[in-house]
From TrEMBL:
GO terms for biological process: response to amino acid. Pfam families: AsnC_trans_reg (PF01037), HTH_AsnC-type (PF13404). This is Transcriptional regulator, AsnC family. It comes from Nostocoides japonicum T1-X7. One of its GO terms (molecular function) is sequence-specific DNA binding. One of its GO terms (cellular component) is cytosol. The keyword Transcription regulation applies. Coiled coil: none annotated. The keyword Transcription regulation applies.
Amino acid sequence: MKDPLTIDEYDLALIHALQIAPRAPWNAIGAVLGVSAVTTARRWERLVGAGLAWVMGQPGPTLWRHQCLAWVEVECESGALQPVADALVEEAQCSSIEVLAGGRGLYVTVMTEDLRTLAKFVMTRVGQLPGVRGTRTYIATQTFAEGSQWRLDALSRGQQTSMAAHAVAYVDGAESAVSSDVDRMLIRSLGEDGRRSATDLALSAGCSPATARRRTAQLLRSRSVLVRCEVADQLVGWPVTATCWATVRPDGLQAAARVLVTLPELRLCAAVTGPANLVITVRLRAIEDLQQLEVLLARTLPQLTFTDRAVTLAYVKRVGAVMDGNGRRVRSVPVDPWGGSGRLSRNSAAGRASDKGT
């Protein structure tokens, strides 16, 4: 019997396929990988059950343009780091929580409905927690790249092309498709399991399967919701995450971003407020690769100056997925910019595999 805590070449190929088309039906994925739909679904269920990989949804870039995306550094008193992290895990507006090296404490990705709600959240929900000494907030002004675009290199070019045929066709320039509480519930439900069928989504959102199917398709096409496949980093050879802050002349920001988004290591690139006007998050094979990456960028982007950098010691929460000490997903608190309580996550299983896509 296969060890549930290991990933083999077939698993890597399956994960890569789901990175390209997270809601593709199992028969389509099986055809690309050369195995049956039943085998593909069973292998995925094992990965999800062990917390090694998962598909989840989150509010997408189209919403970010109308809402507020920010990163909050939380300085904690000695011994308060874990209690503060445990409290913030249950906050649906906290997308990710990282423990950073270098005395930075907690680094929290926050999504709120607007700037006023962000201010209230930081001052009352974060700042008043016992053990919190202070906060520093960086607000995104433009996002150039995000984590759903990162890929493994496990499929051939032909297989990648075949899977791309099952990916959602985004509508460029589309406005947010979120128009009702049903849409918000669909986004939260996808935050627990991004492969939920229309029937399951309908039950969670209180609508008909036809409505759930139609609204989910619209949310995906407009990028109001982003469904992505995540994997336990240490098992796929990319165990190090680092965040770098940099400055570049305002008139050179767009040009710098066009170079940065081509980096295979890139997880996030965003323009932000604060002393640095650019934040970059990368996934690396080894810590020493960070210095090599800086040398490369010094040559290709001499106008870019790094002001600080920090390595992630641990993820407490990652885009709604609550992580254990070994970097595996144990449950979800779906991301909800509108301030949901996370009730959906506490009443659900740690993960499930649906045998249908959209």
